[in-house]
# Entry
Amino acid sequence: MAYCPKCGVEVDDTVKSCPLCQFPIPDVHAFDEQSPYKKDETLEILKKYPQAYNIYQDYRLKVKNQIFFAVLIVFVSAIVIMSMIKFFYPVSEPILRVVLVITISLVFYVFFLFGYLRPFLNITGVFMTTLYLSYALARLSGGQAWFLDYALPLNVLAYISVLSAYYMYKKSKNKRHFGFFPTFIILTIAILCIGIDAVVSMNIHETIRLSWSIIVAVGCLSVAIILRIVTRSLTENMKEVIRRRLHL
Amino acid sequence: MRKKKKKAWYKLDNAGKLYPSIASTRRSTVFRLSAKLSEDISPESLQIALENTIERFPYYKVNLKKGMFWYYFEEVRHVPKIQKETHYPCMFLKFTKKKTFPFRVLYYKHYIHFEISHSVADGTGAMSFLKTLLIQYMKVHYGIYCKRLEGAKDVQKKPHPQESEDAFKRYYDPSIPVPSSNKKAMHFPFPLVEKGRYIFLTGIVPVKKLKELSKAYSCTITQFITALYFEAIQDYVNQTKTLQKHQKDKRIVINIPVDLRQLFPSQSMKNFFVSLTPEIDLRLGTYTLEELIAYLKGYMQLHYTKKNVSRYITRNVKNERILFVRALPLYFKNLIMPYIYVKYGEKGYTTSVSNLGLVRLPDEIQPYVEAIEFYPAPSEVNKIKMCLCSYKDHCYISFGKTINSTEIEKIFFRKLRKLGVPIRIETNQD
# Structure
């Protein structure tokens, strides 16, 4: 029998530390060398509770699948109805084409935003879908130059910004810090605005002249700094309340 | 053409009506009773035993259905299946789904677990079911027949109509004044574990030693344990420097559900309990164990009386009969109820202590059953709850919690240990 010297209570032979105070318990389990079982197997036999798995994850996935398939059915039905209208009653064909392209894109957006794949693939998927949508809309409206001048560089910029924000967040040691995520979002918005301003001015003035984006960037930077200071000075109780309220 | 036999249906009892509306993935409203047998469980025998038992409890062989204004239970024709325990205890039951029962019977090694939603039964009803299941298991597996049933039901007999009654309604008297509602109580600031996890920590102590201590303090075991629990929480509050002043200033309230069958005769297998809420205010100073025991003795003498308890029964039934509540469609009830339950229920107490008392089994099967344990349902507001029951020579003091911290249990069990009580600790915490 194993005992915790600090609490004075008897504990299971299978535990490595006291369940009450986490004080390390020496391995006193008398393992019988003649036993047909290995030591790990013997310890498993002695355990009162199984190695439990979390059914909440299964439940969450099930609900997510149900919502996804419900949304998918709505979109697919819309695509089928529109194709039928286009085939049998082609009155406003250009509008129908635009709606069709948007609906198809929405199906892909929903799929990637539901996070079935790895984050990198989901971000790339959203980027590719946006590229397809912008190209298709540009082609349908007869202005392919708009796609090359604005949509393509802005999409690439957004893709790189989101991807780098994600990897910075992932690599960051403070990723469990709930103030870190909004800070990254704000900084990404600041960088994205500078990029948009640069692309727009490049197309209008044929040179990079930053204007409004500097104001946005300064604002975002200030908010990010204030957020960091505030989150650092919050008490553990307040953090717990925010975590619970915002499901962080 | 033969007409299909109409399915029986049951109204939820007064206390049970609330639970389906407030149930969530975190607040499952499912509590557990466990029996440890001397040998590994035979799944085949257990399945047959369950099939024999469930027919005697037709009011549990049901499926929850949505009505226009309230939930109701509808009889189901198929039989429940036993499951091997693989997930965390007292997990949510999606019993509005077809073919899902409001309970589950699990087995693992030597253990049989009976988990049931509070919408169907309280501890007394659940214990009667577990005892009947154990008797049936012994009959199927070992061929043992029991003469005295000790609270279990005879599967050969038909259920008494009173077993499915709503006893609250029977003893409701509209002329009795209702008690005042609870104020906000202190709550533990520990961070919650992730959803889908629930932690048990059981302290197994000799009943003899507890009886000796209770006798020395001239109180009951429940009063002694509750006083010690109050003292442990008080110590935690006093020694925690990081606890905020507004939390420290709140009262420490312990919710004690009391079985009403002892005061109001009833055979109901549904819910029939009310909660008493003794409290201490630390702004008045630090309490000694003697003071706490004296307070609890006085409190129980004053509050656990037929006259006082009938005020709670009246309050519960009156709340259900408010015209607005009755006329509100179920969809809106489901939206509002969790908020009301937290605000007027869970926020009003710090933790709870539920004692099932001494569990007796028929003499014939006692050698085969080594332990009986009782565990509370999880909650995200009352993060730690305590349940206890005694069987043979041991008392099983079980904490059910949605937090990782063991601070409160550590203080509690160390106090008990200092009083010379040997304790064995078991937990499912990794």
